[in-house]
Every structure is written in structure tokens, then in C-alpha cells.
Design goal:
Number of helices: 7
Mean pLDDT: 88
Strand content: 25-35%
Number of strands: 11
CATH architecture of the largest domain: 3-Layer(aba) Sandwich
CATH superfamily of the largest domain: NAD(P)-binding Rossmann-like Domain
Strand order of the largest sheet: 3-2-1-4-5-6
Largest sheet: 6 strands, parallel
CATH class of the largest domain: Alpha Beta
Distance between the termini: 45 Å
Oligomer: single chain
Helix content: 25-40%
Length: 225
């Protein structure tokens, strides 16, 4: 794939290195001379362009016309929104990923601004911290499709009504699915006859409208309210 990354900070550089090592053609844009110098030291096979990603000419020089993905990952939400909008409207990039720095701005990172996928690092970190300390709680780890779908985790308490039952018998709503079960540090691929135990970490993918039913099944009616 041809990937353009706007932002040569630590996030952009790491993404570029990983994607390039996986065989993708990667170009980085940044208007900070020092950031550009650091990016150019990563790998000679990664093209780095010194320019403003909020300008159409710069995005054109970076090859957005035939890019498969544009990732706007600067440290400025306003810049990421402008880059996303230009990538989608001016160049018709099939997939645009936008980084959210301030969670209060997440509501703007939608298809109205050309964003196909938004990633809120603060929200993700908060969810991971909650996941580490919460038992018997429904912890959202990641939002997809601008909040219409969520990946969440529940560490089953001994009082969970799901304990000792198979996944099939729990009758999860059609708008949800069990992604994985983590038990004693090991990942269990979920099957219909998998029996869940106290202490299991159950990871779910569900649409927003199914979340209440999932909470009721894994936590119980009182906690789900």
C-alpha cells in the first residue's frame, strides 16, 4: 500500500518505521525542520517531505493522488482535521485516519471532516488503566465508526451471572460478538462451547445499541443500569 503520514513526531516516525518494515511505501510530511531531520534518519527508503500538510500542494507532492491511506497524526487537532478533509475531498483518498489529541475534540473527527477512523490516545489509555484495575466493570477500550461500535472488556466477578455458562447459552445480541477470552495470561479463541469462569477477561465487539444487553449478561441487571 501507499501510505502518507502527516506528522513526523514520535507517533508518525514509529508508524512510518513499522509500516515500511512491513513492505508498504511510506511518505512523511512535516514542516518542522528538526522533525524532518529525525524522520530522515529512520530509513533511506522512507521519503520525507518538508512542507505544510494543511496545504494542497504539499499533499500532492507527497503522492496523495494515488495514496491508499492518509494518516493525520500531528500534535494539533485542527491540523489533523484540515489534512483529513483535504485528503478526502481534494484527492479522494480511500481511507483517512485521524489522531485525536484532545478528547473534547473527538466529536469533530467524523466523515464530515473526511475522517474514516479516529484514534483518541487519551481515551485509549484511560480505558487500559481502567481495564487493569476494574473487576466486574464494563470498560470501553476503543470506539469505532465514530462511536457506533465499541470494543470493551469485562473482567468477570464471582457474582457474574455468566459464570459457568457456555458462550452460546449466554445468548448475546446479534449486534455483538466475543472477540477473545483472556484467562491466566493466555488468550482463548472463543467458541460456542467455551465456558467462562470468574476472573476471565471477556473482550466484546458490539454496536452501541447492544451494549446494555451485553452488560446485563456479563455483569448483571443491577450493575448494567
Amino acid at each position: 500500500m501507499k501510505i502518507v503520514i502527516a506528522g513526523a513526531g514520535s507517533v508518525g516516525r514509529y508508524m512510518a518505521e513499522q509500516l515500511h518494515s512491513s513492505g508498504h511505501a511510506v511518505r512523511i510530511i512535516d514542516n518542522d525542520v528538526e522533525a524532518v531531520a529525525r524522520a530522515r534518519a529512520i530509513d533511506p527508503g522512507i521519503e520525507v517531505i518538508n512542507g505544510d500538510g494543511c496545504e494542497v500542494d504539499t499533499l500532492a507532492r507527497a503522492g496523495c493522488r494515488d495514496a491508499d491511506v492518509v494518516a493525520a497524526v500531528t500534535g494539533d487537532d485542527e491540523d489533523n482535521l484540515v489534512i483529513s478533509l483535504l485528503a478526502k475531498q481534494e484527492f479522494g483518498v480511500p481511507r483517512v485516519v485521524g489522531r485525536v489529541n484532545n478528547p473534547k475534540n473527538e466529536w469533530m473527527f467524523t466523515d464530515m471532516w473526511g475522517v474514516d477512523v479516529s484514534v483518541s490516545t487519551p481515551h485509549l489509555l484511560t480505558g487500559l488503566v481502567e481495564e487493569a484495575v476494574s473487576v466486574g466493570s464494563f470498560v470501553r477500550l476503543l470506539s469505532l465508526e465514530h462511536g457506533r461500535a465499541r470494543i470493551a472488556e469485562v473482567t468477570l466477578a464471582p457474582s457474574s451471572p455468566a459464570i459457568g455458562k457456555t458462550l452460546t447459552s449466554l445468548n448475546f445480541p446479534r449486534e455483538s460478538t466475543v472477540v477473545a477470552v483472556l484467562r491466566d495470561g493466555h488468550v482463548i479463541v472463543p467458541r460456542g462451547d467455551t465456558v467462562v469462569r470468574a476472573g476471565d477477561e471477556v473482550m466484546m465487539l458490539s454496536l452501541a445499541e447492544a451494549e446494555a444487553d451485553v452488560r446485563r449478561i456479563l455483569i448483571g441487571p443491577e450493575s448494567a443500569a
